[in-house]
Specification:
- The complex is a heterodimer.
- By secondary structure, chain A is mainly β.
- In chain A, 0% of the residues lie in helices and 51% in strands.
- Chain A contains no helices and eleven strands.
- In chain A, the strands form two sheets. In chain A, strands 2, 4, 5, 9, 10 and 11 form a six-stranded mixed β-sheet that branches. Chain A has a five-stranded antiparallel β-sheet with strand order 1-3-8-7-6, with no helix packed on it.
- In chain A, strand 6 and strand 7 form a beta hairpin.
- Chain A is globular.
- Chain B is mainly β.
- Chain B is built from no helices and eleven strands.
- In chain B, strands 2, 4, 5, 6, 9, 10 and 11 form a seven-stranded mixed β-sheet that branches.
- Chain B is globular, with a radius of gyration of 14 Å.
- The termini of chain B are far apart.
- The chains are: A mainly beta, B mainly beta.
- At the A-B interface, strand 4, strand 5 and strand 9 of A face strand 5, strand 9 and strand 10 of B.
Chain lengths: 113, 118
């Protein structure tokens, strides 16, 4: 079974704090995508990482893909209330030609002002 | 770029009726689209892969006669929930890949369709 374990599942923090969300697997992924979803809307792509060890930054968000391409993390610096939402990681396997995404369980983030 | 739309955004129907949801890639062609279902505060669950010009591939446990998928063109896939019942009430989301844009693995999601069956 190809699983992507995402943690924590719930996070409630104060504005200005830092946080990290993790996605881990025993399987190798050819790519890993991070999405943010707000209630009643579809997921919005934040980043796609494809190279082991890759680090990408998007303003206060830093994404890292593990060297072995089995894990990834999302770090948010100085969180703001606008960061509140459901964060989803999803990966694709190189052995599969279907393009199907394997999703993590999601992390619900609440940033209190 | 890579915009995906869905219609309708929400629908309320009576039990026993059928509901059709459209998924369109607005600025790119998509030979493959994906249909997901999402329950409140949960992650996305893949229902099926829609393939242009051929039959859809359904995930284990998803009834193909219940959820009819048609991918008649490179920019449109439809999901029809047949004989809908209250337990079919959910948030349905589609996605598509733009193979002309790197990374090719990236899926772009529609805004979702909220279905409520009374």
């Amino acid at each position: 079974t190809q699983l992507l374990e995402q943690s924590p599942q719930f996070l409630s923090i104060q504005e200005g704090e830092n946080l990290t969300v993790y996605c881990n697997s025993s399987s190798v992924f050819s790519s890993l995508q991070w999405y943010r979803q707000e209630p009643g809307e579809g997921p919005v792509l934040l980043v796609t990482v494809v190279t082991g060890g890759e680090v990408k930054k998007l303003k206060r968000l830093t994404f890292q893909f593990g060297d072995a391409r089995k894990d990834s993390s999302l770090h948010i610096t100085a969180a703001q209330p606008g960061d509140t939402g459901l964060y989803l990681c999803a990966g694709t396997h190189g052995s599969s030609n279907t393009g199907k995404l394997i999703f993590g369980q999601g992390t619900t983030l609440q940033v209190k002002p | 770029g890579a915009v995906v739309s869905q219609h309708p955004s929400w629908v309320i129907c009576k039990s026993g009726t059928s509901v059709k949801i459209e998924c369109r890639s607005l600025d790119f062609q998509a030979t493959t689209m994906f249909w997901y279902r999402q329950f409140p505060k949960q992650s996305l669950m893949l229902m099926a892969t829609s393939n242009e010009g051929s039959k859809a591939t359904y995930e284990q446990g998803v009834e193909k006669d219940k959820f009819l998928i048609n991918h008649a063109s490179l920019t449109l896939s439809t999901l029809t929930v047949t004989s809908a019942h209250p337990e079919d009430s959910s948030f349905y989301i589609c996605s598509a890949r733009d193979l002309s844009r790197a990374p090719r693995e990236t899926q772009y999601f529609g805004p979702g369709t909220r279905l409520l069956v009374l």
